[in-house]
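Quiz preparation item.
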């Protein structure tokens, strides 16, 4: 029955406790969860979204804590509370004879660490990077779930012994982003203002290219000093401007009108929503050749991959030779939400097919995820 492609699935989507879904402004994971939930509902599934207060979705919305906590991101107090309430509801559903088939977790670390305490199999999307600490965490707890990486680059950094079952990129709803072929003069940098994301390097690249730069994004707690020291002195309201955190139409217009998006990341970012959002608008991306940027940006087609600020500046005029339609198509064909949701649905069904029926029905604990190589789509991303 579970292998039948027409079976509706009961899906518990677990968002983080920090920001409402969809985000009104900054919130990469919340944007992903929102798109995926809506599309899975459109595909006929029964989706319950466990999330922060103030959320809206085509799925059934179950806010867990009294309020979102955008300034407390990562704090155990809130994450543990949020996850334990979600798990209690998931188990209560099973006890009441209406079990979820699958839990899809985007919420951080607690749910994965505790996933062997619930009776429903859990798919965990890896939203962060593997480092000394998270590597140890996943080596210990990764077997509790089916792990999904966002890019081949991210999967390649998984320490030995950690099974990443599939590479499924983050989705973008291409039709929600306005296509614009005629671009303004300015370059755009958008994201969390922090050194990892390289806004100060974007300032240098734009200066060398002789073009104005618009910076946009929140200064999160702990990053005030970086902003004051490395960014604020360059803001002159003319060559370098700071738009603050942007949302809605102002944000999409900023993406669509920009000459190019600058992505001078100094870490192996596992995905990078702002690149696919820019490309959906027909705006090329010029990125440092790190992490998933090497998959999202196809050099010479939808942008350029560069090594430093000088190369980034030199690439700015070469953007003239790129087709905005090609940029948009490059994300529509790989990252559109319909495609991504179909891949997750296929993965859920594969997980369920490998799980004893009793486990699926919520009577027994589920067995550990099958080893890597089991899944038909456990292959590098086509662009990788
Ligand atoms: N974003 C936004 N307003 C801002 C800055 C960012 O809405 O002022 C959004 C941006 O459109 C993207 C998300 O926040 O959807 C950031 O996601 P990304 O994957 O690029 O970065 P990360 O999740 O690492 O912060």
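Solution:
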């Amino acid at each position: 029955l579970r292998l039948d492609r027409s079976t509706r699935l009961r899906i518990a989507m677990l968002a983080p406790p920090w920001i409402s879904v969809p985000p009104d402004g900054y919130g990469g994971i919340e944007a992903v969860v929102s798109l995926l939930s809506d599309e899975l509902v459109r595909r006929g599934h029964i989706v319950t979204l466990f999330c922060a207060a103030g959320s809206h979705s085509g799925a059934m919305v179950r806010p867990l804590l009294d309020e979102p906590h955008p300034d407390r991101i990562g704090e155990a107090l809130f994450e543990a509370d949020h996850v334990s309430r979600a798990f209690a509801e998931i188990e209560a559903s099973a006890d009441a004879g209406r079990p979820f088939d699958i839990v899809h977790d985007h919420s951080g670390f607690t749910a994965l660490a505790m996933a062997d305490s619930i009776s429903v199999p859990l798919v965990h999307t890896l939203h962060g990077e593997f480092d000394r600490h998270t590597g140890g965490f996943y080596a210990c707890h990764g077997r509790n779930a089916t792990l999904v990486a966002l890019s081949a680059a991210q999967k390649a950094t998984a320490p030995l012994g950690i099974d990443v079952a599939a590479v499924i990129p983050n989705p973008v709803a291409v039709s929600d982003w306005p296509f614009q072929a005629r671009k303004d003069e300015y370059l755009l940098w958008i994201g969390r203002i922090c050194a990892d994301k390289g806004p100060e390097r974007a300032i240098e690249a734009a200066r060398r290219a002789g073009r104005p730069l618009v910076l946009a994004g929140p200064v999160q707690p702990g990053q005030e000093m970086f902003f004051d020291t490395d960014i604020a002195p360059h803001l002159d309201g003319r060559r370098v401007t700071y738009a603050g955190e942007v949302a809605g139409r102002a944000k999409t217009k900023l993406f669509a009108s920009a000459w190019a998006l600058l992505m001078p990341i100094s870490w192996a970012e596992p995905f990078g929503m702002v690149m696919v959002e820019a490309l959906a608008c027909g705006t090329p991306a010029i990125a440092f050749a790190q992490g998933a940027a090497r998959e999202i940006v196809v050099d010479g087609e939808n942008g350029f991959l560069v090594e430093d600020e000088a190369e980034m500046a030199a690439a700015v005029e070469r953007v003239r030779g790129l087709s905005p339609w090609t940029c948009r198509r490059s994300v529509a064909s790989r990252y559109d939400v319909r495609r991504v949701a179909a891949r997750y649905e296929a993965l859920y069904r594969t997980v369920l097919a490998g799980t004893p029926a009793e486990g699926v029905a919520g009577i027994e604990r589920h067995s550990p995820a099958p080893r890597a190589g089991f899944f038909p789509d456990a292959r590098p991303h086509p662009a990788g």
